[in-house]
Design a protein that fits this description.
single chain; 123 residues; alpha+beta; four-stranded antiparallel sheet
């Protein structure tokens, strides 16, 4: 990991011709980060896990970690079907017009399907 970071720093320094500083921050609760949950979805679907099971399990763990609502949409050739389709899952409250909440949205396009994920959690 450290060697990859050093090589990335060298390449960026060479590309920009300036000194580059890279800061790494730990994600305290990865179940509340839409990027990580979306990548988890895609890895499970690539591994031929049933997409409904993968999404519902991820939604349950996200809600258990303190999210107020989760909305997920998966589209593409789900479970290897010939016809592409779109499935949408919602759990909890997700009022998108309020400004006082924290929304993390993540769009992830991958080979034959697309995942759209919205997580909402409060303090």
């Amino acid at each position: 990991m450290v060697l990859k970071l050093i090589s990335l720093k060298k390449r960026l320094r060479k590309l920009t011709k300036k000194d580059v500083q890279i800061n790494i921050f730990e994600v305290k609760r990865p179940e509340l980060d839409a990027d990580l949950v979306g990548q988890s979805y895609c890895q499970q679907i690539e591994g031929r896990v049933n997409f409904k099971r993968a999404i519902k399990m991820a939604m349950v763990t996200t809600m258990r970690m303190g999210a107020q609502g989760v909305q997920s949409m998966v589209s593409g050739r789900l479970n290897g079907a010939e016809m592409a389709r779109t499935q949408q899952f919602k759990e909890g409250r997700i009022p998108l017009h309020t400004l006082e909440l924290i929304l993390t949205m993540h769009y992830l396009k991958h080979l034959l399907f697309m995942v759209r994920l919205v997580l909402k959690y409060g303090f």
